[in-house]
Amino acid sequence: MAIEVDVLKRVPVREQDAKVRATNFEEVCLGYNKEEAEAEATRCLNCKNPQCQKGCPVAIDIPAFIQEVKEGNVEAAYQIISQSSALPAVCGRVCPQESQCEGKCIRGFKGDPVSIGKLERYVADTAREMGIVPEGAKEKKNHKVAVIGSGPSGLTCAGDLAKLGYDVTIFEALHEAGGVLVYGIPEFRLPKEKVVKKEIENVEKLGVKIEKDVVIGKSVTIDSLMKDEGFDAVFIGSGAGLPKFMHIPGEQALGVFSANEFLTRSNLMKAFSADSTTPIMHPKKTVVVGGGNVAMDAARTALRLGSEVHVVYRRSEEELPARKEEVEHAKQEGVIFDLLNNPVEILTDEEGWVRGCRCIKMELGEPDESGRRSPVEIPGSEFEIECDAVIMSLGTSPNPLISSTTEGLDINKRKCIVAEESGQTSKTGVFAGGDAVTGAATVILAMGAGKAAAAGIDEYLKTLD
Amino acid sequence: MFKILERNELAAHIYQMVVEAPRVAAGCLPGQFLIVRVDEEGERIPLTICDYDREKGTVEIVVQSIGAETNQIAKMQAGDSFADVVGPLGNPSDLTKEDPEELKNKKIVFIAGGVGTAPVYPQAKWLKEHGVTADVIIGAKNKDLVILEERFKTVCNLYVTTDDGSYGRSGMVTKCLEDLVAEGHQYDLCIAIGPMIMMKFVCKLTKELNIPTIVSMNTIMVDGTGMCGACRLTVGDQVKFACVDGPEFDGHLVDFDQAMNRMKLYKNEETRLKLAEEEGKTHKGHCGVCD
């Protein structure tokens, strides 16, 4: 049955009912089917000077793939996306499209922008079901490249280099490849078996080898990889994994977690499932501190484990750094937002378990260097929230394991690796990108950096021939 | 896969295994640890490194079966393989960074308790190889739980003490240290590895005796690379991660009460898991845990 399209409005995407999904870990968004995707594709104006493509950190030829969707040519659409992105099924789900491609879509001036993300997801999911894989290199090149970390930047860099014919090995510290895609982003936003594993398999099909359980800086150093194991170039995509804490009284109490710990237990170790041998706390009432995407993930995970959840954030709703869609989803599911509040102390019982969180009310003052109005404490406004768990989601910083063990690799005062746009670091043959360089950011920005570094590494390796 | 080449029962519920893990063996130093997973569904379990052979690419681990997960390891035999062995993790002992000539002038005493005896071995061995013979006190509940005695004898001056006096000296390790000092031994450095409660009381004593003391903190952890923060502890006025800042710390600055309290975090879950493993689906409650 043909779908009637109002050019000003998006074809709505089906989602799991909020009440039902709040109790399970199945994916929230169900995605477009063929009819819906082809109908939405007709809304694309196929602009001569496409702004959407400029908004995409990996510069996917968006109008071209959407035209193929409109014609029903999923395979052609997939190969167009694959030229630019190694992880389309991931990006279609977790990119902040509203501030990138869709934010620049001309349709958005009057009405809704085209649902580019949902169309990308449709193409990637359908291609996977059809067994379509990206095209690999025609001829091999005689250089070995080591990629450190199998997160978004590493997978992208490795995929691009393999397509150029290089012999690429990814080294992953954990027992599973995917980086933040497996340990950080929950199953209900990004299914692991169905989506992440398959995208990684596609990268492996391009010829990329993945060696797990190798902690670079501990198991082996970059210098040793280049000197003893014959790697001509190295890409560092080790992310930003070190969690921050508030350093307030009570933070070492039983029931205070970093979002990283809580999410890693649930996502990587599958502690949400009764079959898992990894323990996780099932709180009754949880306070999540922070307002980013990770905070939303932690809040919605705690909710699904049966907890009442309060997000405590020191600014107002407008400043929440999380994607709008994530905030909306969290609200629909029943997460409570206690905005303009900040914890000052975690209260414990006589056995050291969390019994509450003392907060202070905030108001917004003058804009700070980030351009956001900075929150100021209202004197005497302290109050207590009763809870048995507190999840700190205050951001992360890069792990110093690599920078402290690699001679001649410069870092800045935030412990981030210093790199040019091509990914080139202060050390010859060593490139870096993603959160390891920028500090915690998004999947797609890391992919963009991995892509730029692949080009940079290709240029560098050509000079060695 | 990481194959088990050798497996021996050292004492009741304590097993020693030699495991193929070339990358760990190539780089590890005394003081570091590793993490294993039994199979694809397994929990990540931090274990101490007891010895390593760089040429053969093997590491030796010692594990005590105390919970569902360690029971699973205990059941593994030579020829079986771990799904994962990752490491070496944590920092090498400070000893390995010191000038061996200066170390020769230092009188060092190790205090090893229970399975904590295993990680002391590579340190004592390393010192011996660098011309330093340390004193080592091994403490165990009784004669049957004393492990690695013969190997220690070749690398140090060994003192064994048992809580019940069934072997060696009689009493806790703290008593042994007090006795040794009373007998005229002087120490410039103490390194204590064992249960937290033991390390706490050793530190209390060495503070009085004015002997600088290093302890190795075996906390709860998930990834072991600094990501989760589950292993955090207070050292002096700072919060440290045992996995990347340690595992060795100045014992006189560690907040042991807090660290021991944090070990309770998943006790209920772990006990449930262990009961389920032992009793299958027949458990009917009344254990005080699941009711």
Order of helices and strands of chain B: EEHEEEHEEHEHEHEEHEHEEEHEHH
Proportion of beta-strand residues of chain B:
25-35%
Structural class of the secondary structure composition of chain A?
A: alpha/beta
- Mean pLDDT figure of chain B: 92
Largest sheet of chain A: 5 strands, parallel
Describe what is shown at a glance.
The complex is a heterodimer of chains A (465) and B (291). Chain A has 465 residues and is an alpha/beta fold.
Structure characterization notes:
The complex is a heterodimer of chains A (465) and B (291). Chain A has 465 residues and is of the alpha/beta class. Helix content of chain A is 34%, strand content 18%. In chain A, the strands form five sheets. A five-stranded parallel sheet of chain A has the order 5-4-3-6-18. A five-stranded parallel sheet of chain A has the order 8-16-9-10-11. Chain A is globular. Chain B is an alpha/beta fold. Chain B is built from ten helices and 16 strands. In chain B, β1 and β2 (14-20) form a beta hairpin. In chain B, α7 packs antiparallel against α9 (256-262). Chain B is globular. Chain B starts with a strand and ends in a 12-residue tail after the last helix. The chains are: A alpha/beta (465), B alpha/beta (291).
